[in-house]
Design goal:
globular; binds zinc ion; two-stranded antiparallel ribbon; 6 strands; about 100 residues; mainly beta
Length: about 100
């Protein structure tokens, strides 16, 4: 398998499941099953961050025009990031996992 840097699938380091690349052209940066992300980007998709820590979903935000976004917090360096929810893709985000964020 060739190594392409952008928009490839990956294996989630939190739950170990295989994540397919997003089909709608948007960049997938979190696991649709457990919603964990990884601290690897400075700007979305650039892979420029050296931290590499797992990012835990800690909440949801609503932004008009953009819809719901997941708030991720890095377990290594405490950086917080907001990420768009993947709705229209081959593996949409697990709705039950999303709803759990409301109960935190
Ligand atoms: Zn996962
Ligand atoms: Zn980090």
């Amino acid at each position: 398998m060739s190594r392409i840097k952008e928009n490839t699938g990956f294996v989630c380091e939190n739950c170990g499941r295989g994540v397919l690349p997003a089909s709608n052209g948007s960049y997938r940066n979190h696991c649709p099953f457990c919603l964990f992300s990884k601290h690897i980007d400075i700007l979305p998709g650039d892979r420029g961050e050296k931290c590499g820590g797992l990012m835990k979903p800690v909440g949801l935000k609503y932004k008009s025009g953009k819809g719901f976004q997941i708030v991720h917090k890095c377990l290594k360096c405490d950086t917080e990031r907001v990420n768009r929810i993947a709705k229209l893709s081959v593996q949409p985000d697990d709705i039950e996992e999303l709803l759990k964020l409301f109960r935190l």
